[in-house]
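hi!! sorry for the late reply, been swamped w classes. u asked for the two structures so here they r. pasted raw, havent cleaned anything up. first the sequence of the first protein and right below it the tokens
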Amino acid sequence: AVLLVRDNLHLQDILPIRNVSEDPEAMKELVKLSGKEQAPFMMSGGKAYTESKDIIQYLVTQVAPL
């Protein structure tokens, strides 16, 4: 769901994706930042977002004023 929202909001160029299933270093960083092996995960402004609905809400509210 998060990837669909990212595409629909045309954020592909500014919101990179790291696939933790294919990138062991990305998985290590995920665990370091979140404490668990759970994706999707997003950091913004020092805040961690670990639930799809929270990530989607954040993205929509950030893009809506534009």
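now the second protein. again sequence first, tokens right under
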Amino acid sequence: MTIQSSKLNNLFASEMSGLKGCSSLAQCYTCGSCSSVCPVEKVVPGFDPRKIVHMVILGLEKQLLSSNMIWACSQCQSCVDVCPQGVRCSDVIKALRGE
């Protein structure tokens, strides 16, 4: 995927950080712990909670909100228990959905 700086929302991550369960968003260092335990990642091609969080941090708001990726999450919360930084991927995805 080519990322064009003109299509980035530089305020997206800080806006998201203010939402419920998203305060530790910037702590993600893409270790992959969330992806390794995600049951959906194993059966839905292209779904990866680590990628979703990283896209938020990069400011790829339009790409995330226009994709079906955020709707694949089952909200099982498996990712929350394993994150060494306390990033709540499922809550970030929930916030992206507007729930």
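hope this helps!! also noticed smth abt the second:
The chain has six helices and no strands.
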